[in-house]
Amino acid sequence: MRDIARKFRALPLVSWMVWIAIAVIAAPVMALPTETPQDEADAELIEAVELAAEQDDADVELIEATELVAEPEVELASEPEAVTLGTGESAGATSEAEPALVSQSVSDDLADPAEPFDFDERAVETPEDGALEPVSETDGADGSPNGDVDLDDGPLTEPSLKLQTAAIQEGDDFSARARMYGHYFLESNVAFVGAVDLSTGDAFSDTDSTGFDVTELYVVASPPNMPELRGAVGLIELTSFFDRNSFAKDSLTHFINPVFQTNPALSVTQLQSQPAALVHWRPIDEVILKAAAFSSDGFDDLDINGVAGELGVDLGNLIVRGTYVSATDDGDRDGIPESFQINRNGVFGTQEGDREVSYGINAEWFIPELNAGLFGRYGYQRNADLDISGNTYSFGVNVLDLFMDDDRFGVGYGRQLSDDDRRQGDRPDVLETFYDIRLAPNARAGVSWQIRDEFSESFLGLRVRADWDLLELFD
Question: Where is this region: Disordered (predicted)?
């Protein structure tokens, strides 16, 4: 698989950059409002009224036309909703009587490849009406069955295939990515998930490399009658499942700087797209447990030598996660910066095979009265072979619907992974503020301003993204 990826990376840079740019520019055009089924129904009703007015029995025919228009809505409401593998964890303001929700965050805002299968604690921010896909009515708010549906009757959930195009200009650095991702259910509790990226630049921390890359390709399943226990095996983007946060995770929705995305202490300990086996278990509503075993060197040297675990505590509007990762260095030389001051047998810094261990704590707190969310992270990483350690931290706030519906404003301060005792230059910190708005139903744009390295440098950032449901687009 990696060999295939390398061949695609050899494609001319300009050709696929132009392709991505065209897709991004076309987003607002394709997002122009189109006639909805309800609009069509209204039009039919108007025609029926006009026709009825020309006839003697106008009142009777008007009633019949009205019933015809309303009939599809009744049938749609009576159909069983799709069964998915989501945990059924609703937002903090959602009562247990309301439908359970699949994704952790508003699906239009976070387009992670594992989006339908975020077996994570639900987002603490209040979702938009209809923005999240409801789990089947046979699942209670806690994800437990309360109906008589037989899960062996076959898949009830429709397949999904989506495309996201995005571009980020950060100072003089340009990044662009086209991501296609989707899922297909074999049974109501077994599905395949996949994601492929075509990208350039370094702004996307959840994309392993530039060029063509298979980001995810795995099978996910839940034992019959045990929706609280789920597992996945294959090529998994581990950051889609570990160290999630509703207010500091995605560079296309939240902050652009990577210190606010995945905890740097965890990401340099090979928490990325890896061949892995993952288990998610929610024994009670307030506790979420995750564990994964993975190959630190990917498919290049397939060996299950890395482990990750996470304990999440859900207290309503407050979610706290503690994460542990142990792996061997993959030779990318992306560890603690101060480690490259250390000479070991003529080689400075980390070396492939070094044993690395990291810890992270992650908290988010949504305040409904302010429609705002606070977040904070702390991370610690240690290279046992070099006997060096470093830490990192970040904190900030997001405010939703500040100036208009569906906008987002954020301010955050963070410091990259560093060893305070060995550091000789400026502190690798950043103060970032961003403002993000919706341009169209499937397109967003944002602006960011960063001040880095003890307020010595500033960077202006611009971004645009667009999302399409390909199955609906070509239906």
Answer: 73-105, 126-158
